[in-house]
Amino acid sequence: MTEKSPAEYKNAITRSGINIYTPIEVGDANFWIPTPQLEALLNSGLRGRSLFGLPLRTRSKVVKSAVCEALGYPVPSSFAKTQPRFVGQQLDTYSQKSLNLQIWNEELSPTRRYAIIEVTADEVIGRVKVVNGQELALLDTTGTITTKYQAGLDIRSSSHELVSQFDTQAMLPHVRSGAMFHAATSPIQQPESGALLPVSEIFQRLSPLVGLSFADPGMDQERNRGAALHRLVCQALGYDRYEDRGQFPDIRHQLLEVKLQTSPTIDLGLISPNSTDHVDVTQIGVLHPRHCDTRYAMFYASTDGAKVTLTHLFVTTGADFFTRFRRFEGRVTNGKLQIPLPRNFFAL
């Protein structure tokens, strides 16, 4: 199955006559624009536009109008104060002259997309980065967002545990044992029916990684630690290439989230693994994948400061996640959320 181009989604929306308030199911094959294509359309349509001299209220309307045009929607005569502003695409927009993102009076939602629009010093739109609430929560270093979902990991005698013997009932028609991937197949492209490995085979292919070590970039380099593990996982699954956009799930082509644990507290951010909310991927056949359909490969590891050694592997579906790991909840802070964006945010 060939992924649709950004222009194909835009054209479909234009021909349909729907507007930004028309509800669209997450993953709808025709009108839900997947995040990579959404980001491409916004960069193509907004980048280089001048906002020089515009009052703030006028600027906001100009930006929202440009977003409508970029995505193929008609521009409304006025914009309703909905949450989010672009209801159909579950999209909000934030124009940023600084790297201090402020969100008022709303909880972050893992399924909402946030278009962070760079405004340069000379009042011109630069790059546009689209992230979801889960990704924003992971960027928070201030503690203004308290992790919503956490779980506890109890280490037992076995170093390899297959928690789920089978995938969810909804996924079974779409998994295939022995699936092989073309050299051009990316681990972060949209999942495909017949190219999804069964959860038991994911476990089988990843099991040999237990016992392996890689250089430890340091306690404050969790992203780099994760990247080293993701590279090993992609290779073990049979991919010829490694890619990582920092989106959920990590290996989108397999609906697989990869987690590296060096402590028994599992941070899940805004996503509850057993949730029946839809994942931001295109539908697979007639299936709109839910978070509970997602597969999790969790590695427990030890580190001596110089190298990280993988000691345990757990593989489960989201539906079965809390049958093995103890669930406990935090809370999400209301009011004003301030999220300092990384200096290289727009370059990621």
Description of the molecule:
It is a single chain. This protein has about 350 residues and is of the alpha/beta class. The chain has 2 domains: about 5-145 and about 335-345, no CATH class; about 150-330, no CATH class. Helices cover about 20% and strands about 20% of the residues. Strands 6, 7, 8, 10 and 11 form a 5-stranded mixed sheet that branches. A 3-stranded mixed sheet has the order 1-3-4. β3 (about 115-120) and β4 (about 125-130) form a beta hairpin. The longest helix has 16 residues, at about 55-70.
Domain count, please report it. 2
The total beta strand count reads: 13
How does the helix and strand content classify structurally?
alpha/beta
Task: Give the % helix.
Answer: 10-25%
* String of helices and strands: HHHEEEEHEEHEHEEEEHEE
Distance between the termini: 27 Å
Low-confidence stretches: none
Task: Briefly characterize the structure.
The protein is of the alpha/beta class and 348 residues long. Helix content is 21%, strand content 22%. The strands form 4 sheets. Strands 6, 7, 8, 10 and 11 form a 5-stranded mixed β-sheet that branches. The protein has a 3-stranded mixed β-sheet with strand order 1-3-4. It has a 3-stranded antiparallel β-sheet with strand order 9-5-12.
Layout of secondary structure:
Blueprint: H1 6-16, H2 35-46, H3 56-71, E1 91-96, E2 100-104, E3 113-119, E4 125-132, H4 133-139, E5 149-152, E6 160-162, H5 199-206, E7 213-215, H6 222-237, E8 256-261, E9 265-269, E10 295-303, E11 307-317, H7 321-324, E12 326-329, E13 336-340
Parallel strand pairs: 1-3, 6-11, 8-10
Antiparallel strand pairs: 2-13, 3-4, 5-9, 5-12, 7-11, 10-11
Helix pairs in contact: 1-2, 2-3
